Each structure stands twice: as structure tokens, then as C-alpha cells.
Amino acid sequence: MNPDPLNLPPARTWRDISQPVRPRTMSRGGRWRLALSVLRSVGFGAVLGGLVLGGWSVAAAIRGDSRAMPASAKAVPLRAPELVTDRDGVLDAAWLARTLALPKGVSLLELDLARLRERVLADLQVRTATLTRHFPDRLVVKITERSPIARARVALKGGEQRDVLVARDGAAFFGAGFDPAGLATLPWLSGVSFAPDALGFRAGGDIEPLARLLADAQFSAPHLYRQWHSVSLARLAADRALEVTMKNGTLVMFTAKEGYFLQLARLDYVAERLAKVPGIVAKVDLTLGREVPVMADPVTNTQVKVRGRRAGPDPLLSAFNLSQPPPKREL
Amino acid sequence: MSSRSTFIGAVEIGTSKICVLVAEHSGSEVAIIGRGECASRGVIKGAVVDFKAASECAHAALEQAERQAGEKIEEVFLAQTGGHLEGFYNEAAVSVKAADNLIDHSDVRTVCDLALLRDLPFGRTVVHNIRRPFRVDGRMIPGSPVNLVGQRLEVGYWTVHGQEQRLADTINVIKGFNLNVREIVLASLASGYVVTSPEERQHGVLVIDVGGGTTDFALYRDGCAHTTGVLPVGGAHITNDLSIGLRLTQAQAEKLKLRHGRATVQTKDKAQKVWLDGNFAIGDRQFSQQAIEQIVAARIEETLQVVRQRLGAAFRPETCAAGVVLTGGTARLPGIAEVAARVFGVPAHLGEPPVWVAENLREPGHHTALGVLYCGIKAQAEHGQSARRGRGFFSSLRELFTHA
Description:
By secondary structure, chain A is an alpha+beta fold. Chain A has 3 domains: 82-145, Ubiquitin-like (UB roll), CATH 3.10.20; 147-205, no CATH class; 206-331, no CATH class. Chain A is 29% helix and 25% strand. Chain A has 8 helices and 15 strands. Chain A has helices spanning 28-63, 93-100, 113-121, 180-184, 208-220, 222-225, 236-239, 260-275; strands spanning 82-85, 126-134, 138-145, 148-155, 161-167, 171-173, 188-190, 194-196, 201-203, 228-232, 241-246, 251-255, 280-285, 291-298, 316-321. In chain B, α4 (187-195) crosses α10, α6 (235-246) packs across α7 and α8 (289-311) packs parallel to α9. Chain B folds into 4 domains: 6-83 and 165-186 and 355-398, Nucleotidyltransferase, domain 5, CATH 3.30.420; 86-163, Dna Ligase, domain 1 (2-Layer Sandwich); 194-233 and 301-350, ATPase, nucleotide binding domain (Nucleotidyltransferase, domain 5); 235-298, Actin, Chain A, domain 4. Chain B has a 5-stranded mixed sheet with strand order 3-2-1-6-12, with helices on both faces. Chains A and B meet through α1 of A and α1, α2, β8, α3 and β12 of B.
């Protein structure tokens, strides 16, 4: 009978000689190769580990075990929303909190950003809004605001009248966060109807000429702009004319057919002349180009009457001929 | 080559030089793409005696080969030589278990395990187990005996073993370059694969690799290695003899050996002189050509006689029809084949690699590294990557492998 070979001791071969890696016995090339091989192994391990971890996270998320979910996906309570406004923005975090009205303890993943954006844009003071999730618990709202160019008074549904601010694009909003003193310098807007729309009120017709006039006046002739009490668009559609009533009752008519800069220069010249004649309420017509008719009406009362002027044609006091260039004057 | 290519490195750490070859093997094609060579230091008689010096040389050769190949190799096949390598023969026989005397795999496994069962002295470790052909009822079976009918199954193994520390030293030199040694190949077997054909090995051939520090020999019979051995004597000893006999430095003696050395004494005129340098510079000396030849011939003949003696009864001229094939760097000595023929009593010639070997690898000093590379490619092929398709130079290599 043959002996059982399994009971035979195995012969020792050269393969049983250990081949440990001893860096001290290595040459520089060997150490470099070893370092590369270690780096390769570590990189491979990291990739493998990442894949395993990712797979495990996905599996845990699918199972619905929130404890096993990565921190970025956990439903942690949302921090106070952060507001980022443009450089002229006046709205603040309190306004944002009021507007969003988020329930307490809500998590970032529960937010409906589209609906929240609608809430923000419901205030016509906000022109654009971008809402961004920053995991795990930050909501950032970036907005740009409308700047008011005039004030107006609109009638609400119940008949109540309320002051609104009018932006360059015709949007009328109640305004929040503005300095009252700054708002008091804005002229009143008349001769235009405000139609309620889905979000608030919007001026009927084109108010872009008015916006340009006010902007030019504000930046080119601020001393005149400060005297403006109201602006009427009543004749804009028919005559392309804008009527400005100054605080002393003087009515100035601008035309939208030509640039405002020259008209403001003529007005400045006329206003300087009129200032030498106290006690009159004048009507200055800048719609005729270089010919600027000025109708002056002496007032019996020294108090300036802005409203309720005497009816009837105003006597022609004089007509300033501006064919000859006026003396130079810096505006 | 395809992206699935594997890179095989072959390293020979010899006494006089360290040679590294890198081949790219893609299953169907093999190409030698890198070669590194460095003069050896810290190696005496095939054994590492100065680890640092040997490492520096080996690593320089490896770097050179990798640089030339443009690829990093991860593991190498290593040629092993040295006087510590010895061999013994052990055989076993079993009775076939089956009632119908049909030999099965378990019979083969049992007889092989029994033949390999032999304790080695402490500190010795097996390098190779070379199986000789099976015998069924005394009848030699070149292939597998499975499914043959017989009562008695015999097999024998020629086991090559070596000193574990010496082997570990060589392996650690390679490990110092952060490379793994995949296989150790006996240098004489590696050379034999390159300089002999399968037919020669079948008919019986003796391969003698006369290197710098050792002389490796392998006797093939019946297509496989029958006996191997290593003598710790080589070309360095001839240089040493010249250095002592003619009172020269080792470098001068080496130069003289390469220029005027001859394995047979052919110069009759004692007065015939040769110059050491031949440039008529100050210090140049004359030496007797006959004296040089006598010194070299004496050492060569003595070395071959020792080989014959070590082979003993294993070598019989009638079983060595293909004669003696000489290879190795020292085999370039003129007249060495005549000496071998006289000593062994059979025809002898210098080993020539197959015709497909490139010109720069044909010299005898590269035969061992080429043989190791052959073993590496063969091992790769055995691991299921043997779908070979070659052309030109390497199609011939494929043929060799196929018929080996």
C-alpha cells in the first residue's frame, strides 16, 4: 500500500525565504519605486474606499435610515435666511423673514424655493430674486430692488387712499426701509392712472420720459429738482408734454420730443430771471424750443398757491427770446 | 503591442557582470525592449559578499533596462549560480492502485510526492526539482503516464538545493529595488535552453557555462536535465593565475587573457613574445606567449576535468550524442572546445543561440540572461497567456518555446 503523501512534511524551497521590504537596504531608485507603489496603493485604496462609502451612503439613504445619511443630506433645522442685496438695497433680514414666513424648524430640503421666490417677488420693491440652498442649513436670498422716482397716491379697494412709490418701470409699491427724508424729496406723480395687477399697482402708459426727465433734473439741475412739487403726465400721450409744478406754483412744461438737458438749461435761465420778479406765479413753456413763452400772473397773496390757481387765460407777461445764446452758466 | 502586455524582467547577477533584460509579452508577441548591463562588484564566485556594492551595480543595470524599455517591471526572473548549489537524485516507485492496473492521477501524485520526500540539511533550501521521465514497469514514458496500464510506476527527481542565506542575499539585492523575485532559475539550465535544441537535449548533451567566477554545467538526457552542478571556478581564476604567474595586476592580467589567452598551447617558440599594451608606452612589458597559453590551458583543462569528475557515472560518451556545448564569457577563449572534446571524449563546440537572436545579444555572456527570459516567458505562457502569434525574430522564439 502506498504511504499517504499528505502526511509527508513539505520540502523547504526558496519560496519560503521571506522577501520583506526593508527601506534601509534599498537604493534611491528602490525607495522611489517603493514610494510610488505606496502612493499607488493609497490612491487605489482611497478610490475604493470612496466608492464603498458612497455606495453605503446611497444604500442607507434608500433604506430611509436618516442616521446613516451623510451630514449634508440630514434634515437639520434651517438657520435664519441670509439676504444679499445689491448696492442700493434698503431691505433687510427682518423684511425677508416677514416675507418668507418660514415655519420654525423647517429643514432645507423641505423648502419649495419656487414658491418662496414668488413670495419675495410679490413685493414690487423687489425686481429680481434668486434663492440658493447651501447644505446643510443655509438659505441665501439674493435680490435686486427697484428705486423709486416719484410718489403717487392710489385708491385701494375699500376706497382708502394710500401713498405709493413709483419706479422707473411703472411699478408702484408701498416701500419699506427707505429714509422718509429722502422720500420727501420725490415729486408727486399725477395725470396717470394706476391699475391693480396680480402683484400690486402698475402705472398705465409709458412713464419712461418722466423717468428720464427726473433723472436728468436730479443729476444736472438739483437746485431746480428740489423745487419740484409734482409732475403730471396728463398731456404726455396727446402732446408729448410733461407738466412740472414747482413748489412756488410755477408750472413748467417740458417736451418729450427733445432732450431734457437743454430744456433744463433754459428753465434755469428763466427761473433766474423770474426770481428777480417776486410775487408772481408763472407758466413756463419749454415745448417750443428756443422760444420760451413765460406767462406771469401776479398774486395778491404772498403765499404760494400751488393748487387752485385762478382760472382763465394768464396774461402774457413776456416772451424770452433765447435765439441769442444766454450768458454762459454752469448748471 | 496591446494594452494587455506584460513586462518580464530577467536578471543575471554574475561575478563579472550583471545583466538585465526586459521583454514585453502580449500573448501573441514577445519583444526584448530593454537591456541593462553593469560591471559587477561585491560578487565573488556567484555569491554576494558586499551587499551595498552588489546592490548598486544591480540597481544601475535595472534602472538602465527600465529606462531603455520605458516601462516599469514589477517582478523578475533571477538566474542563480554559486558554489553552494548542489544536487542529488531521489526516486520513488509505487504499485498502481487500480485493479485493472490503469494508472490515474492519484498514482502519479503519490509517486511524485514520494520522490520529492527527502530531508535537506539545516540551512539548505530547494531551488529546483527537475523531474526525469516516468517509468512504467521499467519502460520510459516521456510524457504523462496517466491512463497507461502497468503495475509499477517509477519517477525520479534531480533536486537542486542551495544555502538559504546565499539565496536570500541575492533575493534581497533585487528586493532593494522594490522588485519581487518570481522565479529562480539555475544558470546552467537557463544557458542550456538557449544554446541547445530540443533534439540535442533528447539525444544527450552536456552544457558547460564557463563564467567569470563559476562554471555551471547541466547534463541533458532524454529531453530533460539529468544532472547539474556548479564549480566555484571560472575565468576570474585564469586571470588570477596569470596575475600570479606573470606578476601582473588583475587588470593587466585580464587584458592579457582577453588579448592573448588560449585554452591550448599552440606556440612552440618560447621566445615568442607579446606586448602587454602594445602602445610602446613607458611601462609596457613583454611576455612569453607560450607561458600565457600554458597558464590558461592548465586552468581550463583542470576545470573541465573537475566537471567530468563531478559528473561521474552520469556522463557516458555513448549517452551524450550531441556532445559538449560550451557557453559563458570564458568560452570565448580560443581552443576551449578542443580541450573539452579531449577531456570528455565527445565532440564539443561553442554554443550558438538560435538564429533569431539579435546580433547584440548573441555573445556567450548573454546566454544565461536570455535563457532566464525564456523561462519567464514560458512561465507566463503556462499561466494562460500563451496565445502566441509572432513574426520575424520572435516567431522563431515562439517555435523554440513550443518545441521545448
